[in-house]
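for the record, two folds in this file. i put them one after another cuz i was lazy. first one right below, seq on top, structure tokens after. the second one comes after a little note so u can tell where it starts
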Amino acid sequence: MQKTLISLSFDDGREDTYRVAFKIMKKYGLKGTIHVTTGYVDKTWNEEKWKTAKGPISVEQLKEMKEYNFEISSHGDKHITENNDLSVSIEKLEQWGLINEKIGFSIPRSKLLENKLEFSKYLEINRVSYMRGGRSPLCYSLKSKIIYVLYNLTKIQLFYDLFNRHNCISIRENYIENKYDLFSVIIRYEDNPSTVVKFIKSNINKSKWIILMLHSIQEKNEDNYGKDPWCWDANKFEQLCKELKVMSDAGEILVKPILDVIEDRFPQRQPSLLD
């Protein structure tokens, strides 16, 4: 039985991913993935709805993270899922010296607007190794919606586990069903790190891969703190990282960037939507 895999992934390219999250992860020797909206970084595009975002990360900061072996991935150029937009994003990341031969992609807004089969072809042509989305479609059944409401009302661990079990990626003898349809556990403002840790522990020795989707990581005294559900407290994030380090040192889990998992564990081409 192989170790449970954990990946920390940050969407958008927000400045606090470098200023807060990266600092904490370095403290515990952890590496993750940042999915960059390139138009946000070079200020050719902006999103006013990101109320907890103070601004974009800089190219120089991204280079420092890459030097530390953080994965730099695409999140589109204008935060949309579209062929030409993805091409622009990849070109910019190449010009900035942030990607190598292969690259990952995270679906903006967790919604694939184009035909999934056609977009998968486009991903393969552009050497995109994986596509990370949001929650599993099973999370949107009536039963799962009721469980999610119960969790939000009660914060009972059982409801969190039942809801997020669909978002774990099963690994069977170094095989994943579809690298272009990776689900993730979304971390929101009200989530408690102990709840997330207990969920991870409940999946140890079950051949699972858990990708955590995060956005802003901020201190409580910051002006934008808590203005939307996509902000998580820096102290909560540090508690999570501390527990991940303990579990990693105990040999229970492996914490790795998404592309590293794909390349190390699944080096051969996996069946995709083209098959």
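(here's the note) second protein begins now
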Amino acid sequence: MSYDSVRMDEQIRVLEPSIQAFITRYNVVSASSPPSPRQTLFLFPGGMASKLKRATRAWNPSGPNSQVFNYEELWGEILGLLGGAARDLRMEKTKAGGYRDKRSYIIVADGLANVFGFTPYMVFSLWCTVKKIDLFVFPWDWRRSVDDVGRFFVDRFLPHFQERVQNGCNNADPLADYSLIGHSAGGMVVNWILRNVTLPGTLRKAITVAAPFYGYGGQLHRWFEGDELVNMGGLFTKGVIKALSSFPGCYSWHFLPESFYTANQLAFQNDAAYPLPSYPSVDAATGNSVDPYNPLPPGKRYPTPTQSGFDSGELAKAATLFAQLTSPLSPAQAAKFVNIRGDTTTNNTFSTTTWQLVPPILPSPIGDSSLAPGDGTQPAWTTRDIGLAQQVPGNVITVTGGDTAHLIILDSPQTIAQVAAVLGIP
């Protein structure tokens, strides 16, 4: 059996306790409440918010078809990341263009990352419990591209989940009335699923919260600077950059292609209080636009493969993926699609970048050049789909105030109230 087949089988197996917990909660509610319509809600956490675990031994290509592994946490608790473990998240490209985890030690997603015992979405999850919404948090491998994750969810996880719940809940169908909600990068998985997959007609809504439809400035920094969360003051920076450069998912978070901005310039400029007046990525010396998906002059913008492992082939794939993620919505898709974006009202979100030529790559050639309204991470102009805003303006919702900061926006009472309204929850 191939590496990918074993990896996906293992991902399903690792999620079994979470599925069983869902079944148990479902039956407890059924036993304690009068019969009533049920709603299932699948939550896709933001990028890096899902816990990743690594197998304690390598996959054996000559081994049996069914290989079962034990796992140890690799990405989850902040204190556990300070010793350079993040470098073991690195992926290796196969000759066929696919990916394996470093040295074929399978990595799976299981649960939510936590900071000193606190996990994201605690308030939102509690609200779902109180309102008797059947919530399933779907952890996902944020290193992988959103189409890879979306396809796995639809083709492998969803049928398995439906069968398990029906068998464990007196044939109750968890997909009889269900919705998808995704925070940040998780919202882009939801976006891809809505646009590219024919889901059961019982899908009620597909909701994004602070999803970067048109990218953000933070990703460009990572190719040169790594991630300050795990760099350890520069001790592991080179290894972290090489790991980040091996993640196909990272190549999709750049600012939008210049051609897309040009074609939709009026829509970006006319976004009420949140316009994008000009292209957000420019050369530091000339002020001319620099498209992260097609940066000119060739070979003078990104690190070389030798320096960092940067993969121009993945950049080209990301450009194709961007086209899929921004393709026109059908009327039926637009009716189900809802974007929620945040504005802290402090004008504190980096909105444009400047770019110097390379080499050298040190110091970093990327600079943040202006601030705009947003949630502190994503500028407000990137967290609404412009096609949806034109087709169904009421499906683009803005929440404002200090509790709408990016990391906590889904726990904001304002956001929860909007989700309740969208789902018809009193």
